[in-house]
Amino acid sequence: MHSIQISADSSNIGGAPNSGRIIASLESMRASSPTHLKAPTGLLTDDDDRLSWMRDHPSALNMFEEIVGMSKGKQIAMFLDYDGTLSPIVDDPEVAFMSEAMREAVRDVAQYFPTAIVSGRCKDKVFGFVQLAELYYAGSHGMDIQGPEVSIGTKCTRGSKSVLFQPASEFLLMIDEVYKALVEKTKAIPGAKVENNRFCVSVHFRCVDEKRWVGLAEQVGSVLKGYPKLRVTQGRKVLEIRSSIKWDKGKALEFLLDSLGKLHICKPQGRRLNLKSNVRFDEFLLPLLITGFADSEDVLPVYIGDDRTDEDAFKREDRGSIPKDTSASYSLREPLEVMEFLKRLVDWKRVSTNPPPSDSQKLSGLLVRPSNRVFAPTGFCTCEMRDRRLLPTCVS
Ligand SMILES: O=P(O)(O)OC[C@H]1O[C@H](O[C@H]2O[C@H](CO)[C@@H](O)[C@H](O)[C@H]2O)[C@H](O)[C@@H](O)[C@@H]1O
């Protein structure tokens, strides 16, 4: 199977931290993302490195025909990270809005392909930014998954919003406690910001003076010493605290693919491929890596993301260990290029789909299988096409 995503190392920086342990090195914090979007960071200073990176991860726009060629006979499933992918990176996480044009592009994509937002943000917050009810949302790094709203004119499903999966619900109280402790511990550090993402907590250092980064990491470590069941990962100028359960964006991707399989595609099987990962990239130059997997008969997951945590989505367990051919990896430079890519995908689909999908096919991302049965996500409801009408057959 092929898929699209971002690259970087999603290393687990600290699990079960000891007292006062520095949970992130200054170097790793520096490398986590330049402070300003356009600042050349020098991560790829060498021209040869740069050329070789671009050769290995060509622009998804330049390689568009090749990418859509891979989807021949398959259903594309779209997975989109939010920050840095749909919205530009800004200093204040509260105002990381996506543009109306981007929203339009995502809305259009979702008309043709089942589409999920996979974010480190809590689900409600990312929904507040995206505002498209027809999408799947996997918030808190995939620990809070919800299917699209379905309104098919029946009492049982009208406007319902069904939670599909919350694998870390037992950590809710603990995370809230840690959030409060982190707010208290870091309040004296100018620019530090603690964000409650419900099933995880983000400690931002984008606006903290670099001289204080290690001190901030120490404070985080000191809070976490009492919580051996929590771990820390690192994103773009952010430390992310979450439960140590084996669940991440990659697992969420699996879960969603599995749910979609119940909708309209067979579960991917066969040979598995690893993505090329741990690629160093310059945020300004090439933040988005699009990578392909082989090989499902039925589905081409396209994952676009820019963060270390998105790497988890490349490393889905069922991928096995066969190195991916680098020609299947692609990149996009910034959200504007992501938008361009989404638009081109829709244009391509519009031209190649004749006639366009019917309303019932498009309805909330539900697509009709050849058998005429339409399946809603796990724990949601099952529907059936009868006399060209979509009828629910059960609700769970
Ligand atoms: O998985 P994502 O949707 O990419 O979320 C990852 C984190 O994104 C946000 O932080 C990042 O974007 C901010 C706004 O541009 C920026 O200020 C910050 O430095 C970045 O790390 C979000 O605030 C975090 O909670 C997410 O975990």
TrEMBL record:
Q: Please, which domain of life does this record's source organism belong to?
A: Eukaryota
Q: Which reaction does it catalyse?
A: alpha,alpha-trehalose 6-phosphate + H2O = alpha,alpha-trehalose + phosphate
Q: Which cofactor does it need?
A: a divalent metal cation
| Pfam families named among the record's database cross-references | Trehalose_PPase
Cite the annotated pathway.
Glycan biosynthesis; trehalose biosynthesis
Entry keywords, A to Z: Hydrolase
What family, per the record? Belongs to the trehalose phosphatase family.
| Protein name per the record | Trehalose 6-phosphate phosphatase
